[in-house]
Structures are given as structure tokens and as C-alpha cells.
Amino acid sequence: MNILVFLLGSSIGLGLLVLVSNSTRARLKSQVGRLTSSYISKYEVSGLDVLLAIACAVALGVVTRWPMAFVLGGLGTLVVLPIIRSTKGGSVAEKIEAIGIWADMLRDTLFASAGLGQAIISTCQLVPEAIRPEVVQLARRIEVGVPIGDALREFASQIDESSADLIVSALILASEHRAQKLADLLEALAESVRDEVNARLRIESARAPLRTSIRVIVGFSLSFALFLVLVAHQYLQPYDSRSGQIALLLVGSLYLGGLLLMGKMAKAKSLPRLNLAKTREATL
Length: 284
What we know:
Layout: H1 2-43, H2 47-64, H3 67-84, H4 88-110, H5 116-123, H6 132-143, H7 148-159, H8 162-177, H9 182-230, H10 242-266, H11 277-283
């Protein structure tokens, strides 16, 4: 009887353990997938970065014969490359400035055109290069008969900038409600965009020394590690043991975590976007 109770209790316990393990594994897998996709979209990891990460991982694994060198080499490449080439802040400021210039062009063109759609079509080949492909696609949608409001919402989604949302919302309201004094509104918005560009440029100039520091730290660390591997390999012999590999994983994880934090400090943050769907609801 006691054996039967023991077996039943063990079976129930094992079943609960399997259920908890499966749910924990699924939850952990979804969290890891979400974090991975978030990092890839946030830091713009490209396919070339993945190939370089695999190549570096294989090279380090072959040279050192350390399993942790294989892991840290791949992860380190994926972490370091996007941070080193991080220049998005300057490109964002350039895009925002182009949006302000386009608003000025629309204001000037509205006086001589037959309407907002014609004004957009007239300016599509004259806008700055930073947003020209998106404006050209916007003009083509209008030419083929897509409603201006829907075309502008798609344009704002492609630009993906809060400054563009302000101008697009004004254009949507003007196209669907025939708002008066649109030219004055565009002039005010263009002035606001120019102020935002100046603020962004000041912020980016303040972050430039931090990006330089990151590049110096990464360059010195890689050079020193390469020197130890090629010249002073005896200094690295303690890492050949199992405990040495654990220590290497711990040190490498802390190093990569510090780089991620520094990269986060040096990265320009995008302002929250407007919900342009509300402009559609307001017109219904």
C-alpha cells in the first residue's frame, strides 16, 4: 500500500514537474525570441553582421579550442558591430531637416497648384535625398487614385518619424476637411522642425565623445586579446580548464553587458509617434 501511494505521488509530482518545465521553457523561448527581435530591430543587425559573427566565432573556436570563445566571439561580433557604426543620430537629424524643407516647399507650391495632391506631385522630384524615395512613392499613389489621406498615412509609416507625423496630420486634415490657412500651418510646423533639428544636432555632438570612447575601448580590448592569443598564449593557459571556461564566460558576459549599456547611452532615442488612425476616425 505504501509503495502504491509512493508511486502515485511520484507520478503526480513528475507530471507537475513536466508541466512546469514545459511552460517555463515556452515562456523563456518567447522572451528570448522577443529580446532577440527587439535587439535586431533596435540596433539594425544586418545579414552581413550575422555572417561575420559566425566567421569570428568559428575562427576563435579553432584558434583557441575554447567552447566559450566560440560563443563569446559570435555574440561579441553581433554586439560590437552595430555599436561601432552607430551613426543613426546624424541620419535622423538629416531626415527631420528634409521633412522641414519639404513642408516649406509644399507651402510655396500650394499657392500655384490646383490642390494639395498636385502640390505633392510637383515637389516629389525636388525634395532632399533623405526622403525623396518616400515622397516619390507618395506622389505615385496619389497619381493612381489612392485617396490622399490613405497615401499620407502610408507615407508617415514609411518615414517613421514624429516630426513627419505632425506635418502629415496637418495635410490629412486639410485634404479631408479642407482646412483653411494650411500654408501658415506648414510654415509654423517647418519652423518647429528646424528647432528640433538644432536640438538633435546638439545632442549628437554631445554623444560623439561617448561613441569615440566605445570605439577606443573595443579597439584596445581586441588588440590586447589578439596579442595574448598570438604571442603570450601561456598567460591564457588557466582558461583551458572547465573552471577557466566558466570564468571566461562570466568575464565576457560582463564585458558585453557593459558595451550594451554604453551603446544604449550613445544611441539616439526616437520620440513617440502620433496615432494617425485617430485622424481617420475624426473624419468618419
